[in-house]
Amino acid sequence: MEGTFDLDEDGQYEFVAVEFDRINGHSVSMIRYYEIDIDGFQNLTWELELPDGLLGSFVGVRLADLVGDGVPELIAVANLSANGDGTILQPIIFYYKWYDDGFGETPAGFLNLGDEKGFVRCNNFDVFNLDNDDDQEILLSLGSPLRGLSIIDLDEEGNLTMIERLEPSALKTGIGFVYGAALDWNRDGYDEILCFSPEGNVMKIQPYFNRNGRLVLGESKQVIITGMNGPLPMSLAVSDWDSDGFKDVLLPFQSGHVVSMTLSPATVAVEVLPVDAGPLSDMNVVDINLDNVADLLLISGEMNMITMVMGSLDAVDLETSYFTLETESTGAQVFATIPVTDGGD
Question: Is the pLDDT confidence value at 343 over 60?
């Protein structure tokens, strides 16, 4: 889930979610935009389903200002197959413009990145500022045989176009998916990129430094993390979680690990956060107690448990609280959460 916003400026917050279900034995994927009313109920205002006749699923959804006019567009990425073979998927990007009362019914633009190659799919995507201007670009991680990242921007006619392809040398071969995340580690307005691939107990990492809009390959790194399994790229977060002045890329795993990757001029510092929340299905980073230190909200769908880890300048002594969902329905279960905050932060 992505949020929260108030694009229609009515004082009621909105959020967008990627949803999955099974209908008549078939997997269904869609994107839905909700508004939370004054009573706390979520009302569906807009939704996007996969085009008729296409197999596949959505990779994720983000709101970002691609044009630079201060109004965000909704960006969706899906892995789709038109020939009925679910193993040969091509990544397609759609973006929708916001109007006074909602997002448009048809995409303002789309781009197929498959180039008719087999076994190419998007693993995750992010939005970032490559050249320190008013608009943002899109970063997509692509699978075999490319095992790299593509940077997408709008041209002068408003069409999505690929402006650069990155092929990190440390990740050219491997058995794990390649993922990417953007962060401005030195706060100069130019976003850097961390690309990484969890492969068994090994995390391969390749940074790209941003030199005034030009991406320069940094030194790669490999770290052994015993028991790491099942990355959750939709729950990836970028935050200065330990309040040391540097933003961290936090990647949760189904195995319960939360891996922090912090970029610096010398290296990428990697650590496993000292949290115990069971097998994970979701993670959010938010300042729950308003002490200007980020906290973790960890969800275990398997255990039906919510864990709150209160951030502290002393990571050795973290305050942890555990909660279970209690309702009149014995079948209720929690798999994901969204903090309601101001400004989409």
Answer: no
232: left (phi over 0), alpha (psi -120 to 50) or beta: beta
Q: Is 54 exposed, middle or buried (0-12, 13-18, 19+ CB in 10 A)?
A: middle
Instruction: Give tens-digit pLDDT for 21-73.
Output: 766 666 778 899 988 888 888 899 999 987 765 678 899 999 999 998 888 99
Residue 309: strand pairing partners: 296, 320
**Cα R_g (the chain), whole angstroms:** 20
What is the secondary structure of 191-243 as a DSSP string?
-EEEEEEEETTEEEEEEEEEETTEEEE---EEEE-TT---B-GGG-EEE-TT-
Q: In residues, how long is the chain? A: 345
User: How far, CA to CA in Å, does 158 sit from each of 77, 153, 261?
Assistant: 17, 9, 35
d(CA 46, CA 51): 15
What would the two tokens of residue 121 be? 């799919």
Residues 6+ apart with CB under 8 A from 94: 48, 75, 76, 77, 78, 107, 109, 110
Beta-bridge partner residues of 299: 282, 306
Q: Round to whole Å and give the CA distance between 160 and 135.
A: 13
Reduced to 3 states (helix: H, G, I; strand: E, B; else coil), residue 31 is: strand
- Contact between 232 and 253 (Cβ < 8 Å): yes
- Going through 37-154 in order, the beta strands assigned E by DSSP cover 42-49, 55-64, 73-81, 90-96, 98-99, 102-103, 109-112, 122-128, 137-142, 148-154
146 Ramachandran zone, left/alpha/beta (phi>0; psi -120 to 50): alpha
Which is more confidently placed, 293 or 55? 293
**Exposure of 23 in the CB half-sphere (CA atoms within 13 A):** 6
- What's the N-to-C CA distance of the chain in angstroms? 13
